[in-house]
Amino acid sequence: MKNERLIEVQNLKKYFNVDNSNIFKDEKKLKAVDGISFDINKGETFGLVGESGSGKSTTGLLMLRLLNPTSGSVYLEGKDIFKYSKAKFRHLRKDLQIIFQDASWALDPKMIIEDILSEPLKIHNIVPRFEREKEVKRLLNIVGLSSKDMKKFPHEFSGGERQRIGIAKAISTKPKFILCDEPVSALDVSIQSKILNLLRDLQSEYDLTYLFIAHGLNVVRHVSDRVGVMYLGRLMEVGDVHTIYNNPKHPYTEALISAFPHTDPEIESKRIILKGEIPSPINPPLGCVFHTRCPKKMDICEKLVPKLTEVDKDHKSACFLDERVIENSKGGEGIENK
Ligand code: SF4
Fold it and tell me: Does domain 5-18+25-329 have CATH number 3.40.50.300?
């Protein structure tokens, strides 16, 4: 099933207006997502990584139509989700679910678990009314909780257990796609692997498709089939997880990989420390947005925007260190072409 396309993101952009109170100055835009394209196959986990401010969470929210884009498209099974009317999209909502970093965001503290899990079953008419209680018990069991827990409130559970309830809620509507927005980053390390194993088991059992968002590559490489690396609203590299990890083409990916903790002092000494902070997305650098921090920067990097280009089979990079990227980017954005 993993070569059948489920989601296609095409040239997606999301710009936010910021402080436009001075009418004599040009409108300022925060470019959270700036023209990204990738796809996700059925039954696949696509990992999206990058530092805070890279645009990965905004991308996820756009893919669920929880935000409207400035331009671009997100296709679910060939249909653009932004083209549906609000009423028609309501039926599609059950196919697109989310697991939050903090499960509390999805769990009303005033409701018992039975009501929390019954709500989506009722709204989307997943099971007949008389079967709802049985379905809630089934959902709790498959995420590793007891059906006796259904009368409790969210605060009576640990963080890991709350995340299990959040997962039960996300899968309750039998979705086609789940956005996992840093689902383990707020949990203890000992709990993280259990939640990741649960997500993996549910994926193979129910043929789920995930977008897995994380800060670094260390968690993502254990759960993803393919990975996209984001920086300042753009995709720097996309490829199979083993290729990205073992043969990265982009200096930013190399820096993320070198940040993995190593016990070997020789490997540790080769760690790439990026200088400075990620620049403001209100005023991103011209040319390659990574050039202000890139240890391999060349003259062309300030003048032309590198296009994400196929550099190997199923492996794309947006770095001029590969000649094909230079060729593919000529005539595109950048002061060289003004
Ligand atoms: Fe570095 Fe230039 Fe490649 Fe950008 S295009 S990552 S600045 S070498």
Answer: yes
